[in-house]
Amino acid sequence: MTFLHLFIVNKSGGLIHHRPLSKHAPHIGTNDWLRIGSTFHSLHAIAAEASPVKSKHKNDGIEFIEAEGLILCCFQTRTGIKFVITAEPGTRNLQKVLREIYVSYADCTLKDPFYELEMPIRCELFTQAVDDIMRQYG
Amino acid sequence: MSKSANIAAAGHALWANTPKVNTELFALTYGSLITEILRDYDQDISEVNVQLERIGHSIGVRCVDELLAKSEVNGINIPMCRDLRETAEVIAKIGFRMFLGVNCDVGKLTDKSFSLYLSENPLNIFVELPSMSEDEGGSGPDWNQLKYSNIYCGVIRGALEQVNLKVECSFVRDVLRGDEVNEIRVNVKEVLAEGAGEDYHEE
Q1: Nearest to B65 among A48, A56, A105 (CB)
Q2: Which pTM value belongs to this model?
Q3: Neighbouring-strand partners of residue B106
Q4: Is the pLDDT of residue B197 over 50?
Q5: Dihedral over alpha carbons B193, B198, B202, B203 (to 10 degrees)
Q6: What average pLDDT score do residues B97-117 get?
Q7: Confidence at residue B203, expressed as pLDDT on a 0 to 100 scale
Q8: Touching check for A100 and chain B: CB below 8 Å?
């Protein structure tokens, strides 16, 4: 049961990071990625509005999508960034992995003095940190 | 009062897990930063204060994610703040404790502002502001105007901006100027709407 892809969407809906998490992950082109990122951002916002029950949580939206071929888990931070991970059905620890990736984001990306907020992430340390998390949970 | 006990315990737990650096190194590095800025801006004290706040802002926007991320993985649940008092408590008990290891208290709470009291400040442990000498008269810089730890104001402003609270922060009392305690006054200007909210609301 493996993880497939990770993508990170910023506050305004732009895709700031995407990567495959294992060899099984199907290849997705850059344009498709950008489309996936902005589509997910819009669906997340609409889901919060379309919900029949108004949640007290300000960060309401899509948390989990379960399909026949994949499961998708989304974690929206209180600062508006969405960490989304896809995996084969039956994979566990998705929420934990997302929280650990959030910590790596705070430790590697945010502390990089050359990283501008809301911009695409190009940090070697972050990539390595995610690789380590995958080695631990994958 | 168990909730505030939980928040204080959370702060202590996070501080225990944070990597530490030598306090003296921290204080001296900050001191040399201040001297550099003073040199860059020709001892224009008000400009230096503005720059310190700006530096603090860049730090603050990043600190808030670290606080939220680390508390999640350490099993500490910081619930969504229902009122300003809870926000102030989180900043004082968890934020200041986790990043600096210092005790910070909240006071003078109204529905749009609060004060933070810092009894110990690791940045100014070796600092003394120069006094105005008589022969210089009015020509030297007015050191009393220097907000030495103004970086904290920027950090708080940046951090709250990331969670949609626009605030104004300033130092109202400073031990370097002779007061007994450091007091930072935080005023909430507005609560910003969520990013995607407006476009998707029902007509």
Answers
A1: A105
A2: 0.89
A3: B116
A4: no
A5: 120
A6: 90
A7: 44
A8: yes
